Hints:
Strand order of the largest sheet: 1-2-3-4-5
Order of helices and strands: HEEEEEHH
Radius of gyration: 23 Å
Distance between the termini: 79 Å
Shape: elongated
Oligomer: single chain
Helix content: 40-55%
Structural class: alpha+beta
Largest sheet: 5 strands, antiparallel
Number of domains: 1
Strand content: 15-25%
Number of helices: 3
Amino acid sequence: MAKIIKLGITLGIFCVLSAGLLAWVFLMTTPVIEANAKASFEGSLREVLPGAQTFKDVSVKGAKSQIYEGYADGKPVGLAVKVAPRGYAGEIEMLVGVDPELRVKGMKILSQRETPGLGTNMLKPKFIAQFIGKGVKDVLEPKKDIDALTGATISTRGVCEGVKAVLKDAEQYGKGKP
Length: 178
């Protein structure tokens, strides 16, 4: 009986020390992870809105999209809008850059869970390139003005819906500015 109690106490001490060490590692690494995530996102903003040097979050609370105004030498050069339309296997988190003429300047898929080898083809530059230059007057429909991904029409439609939402939000943001 004493042997069982001794083993229980030893196991308890080991668990408390392990939990404490794990909590300490979490506290030490969280700021670094957050800083790296912020730097990565800022790089993505610059990637979708070429020429922009700084960004200002101008999102409206409660909105489905996040809007960032891009500036170069203190002058606005466009918007970068983060949306998450529904794809086949879940949300497709994407960032789209829009110039002042409401044309797509750049696009980046930030995260997705689509089918490997089918829906994941949305990450290929050839697929993304067909959205560059598209504007609010474009149809943005798979098999019409956008080449659908083979076997992943729902994923393609999701990306198209995301770009349409971005263009609509950018247009509404432009109308609401003084």
